[in-house]
Amino acid sequence: MKRAFILIYLTLWGLTAHAQLKTDLREIDESARYSREKKFKTWTISAGYGPVIPFTDITSHTIIPSDKWNFGISASIAKQLYPSFAFELQFLKTDMYGEKGKFYFEGDLMDFTINLQTYINQMINFPGPYRDHWDFYLKIGIGMQAFRSRLHNLADGSIVKVGDFGSDPSDMRHVVLGYDKYNPDKKITRKGELVLPMGAGVLYRINNSFDIGVESTIRFSYEDNLDNILVGATNDRYWYTGINLHYNFGEKNKRHSKWTYRSYGFNIFGKPKKDPLLSEIEDLEDRIKTYEANRPIKHDSVYIYHSAKKIYERNNLHQVFFTLKNTKVEPAYHDVLAQVVIKLMTNPSWKAELIGFSDEKDENANNMLISQQRCEEVADKLVNDLNIDPGRIIITPKGNSELLSPTYQLSPRGLHFINRRVDIVIRKE
Fold it and tell me: For residue 188, how far is the Cα from the chain centroid?
């Protein structure tokens, strides 16, 4: 049984990990898309009926009984915690029968179990019901069984006595549990033991209120008492397979949570999952802040930035400066482009206007052309290196017109620096 626990754990872990690597591109009706803010049905009651096959020391079959069959009834109530998990209380009642060699045993059994159901189709790629009507689940639990049983001689049907085994022929106690040992027709308190159910099931959604399904579980007894024979190598167990009718109660037009689609962005517990892209953006923002905090601030660049903000009447302004006759973006300004990208990625409707300038120091150069080339260089970095849609970029070359002034407040270096730049103006559209 320990191996089965480990196998189930590894299977669920593998399916969950694999599911996180895929992006969900399905078109899902909003009434079926899971969200913690929406209201779905979460309670289910069910009733079932099916064969119960014991595996004890007094059973001769390996899987399918060759003698008498017993059928049991079950009832349960379940609470869906998330689309992936449900908590269930289940009751099972059945008669028992088995025979081997000179003996047979018969009795009746009830068990009460608390189970955790894990929906497999919520763990795989594109989690949700298969074809909108099928759900598959595993279950495991713990509970108590209460039973009565008597051991009989196969030849005449008499109840076996302890003395029949030869240890003490005068011992008149009968081999029974849940009955008086001296009066085997008199019922007393049932024998109680721990039971551990483990199994799987499949559900078919009829409509928002009713499902039908088949569930099969092996229920492991903690001890070896069901057949009254205590000399077996393994503890007793029994296999129950039931056909079940489920009623999902709540608002008629609402789906049950287990029939919803857990789309991209939610983990198996129905909680929002952090978007990897958002994590990258936050990491980039932290790196930019660190860089900005440690970068020397020049008086000239600060003055130019604040003067440009007044001209454009906007706060969403970034600037890339160029050296003489140069149209290439220097590495020092990559963090500026990163800040632009963050704003555009987090605001899909915004656009960036690139306004380019040159000055009289760009000797023998066409000022309009060189300002155009500087804008195109910045646009190339944004589009080809940082994956910004080119349709969100507007290029406006100004050449050596509309120079930033007054220049007399700037240092000599600033006079050569001020008009060799591209202003990146973020426009909210």
Answer: 48
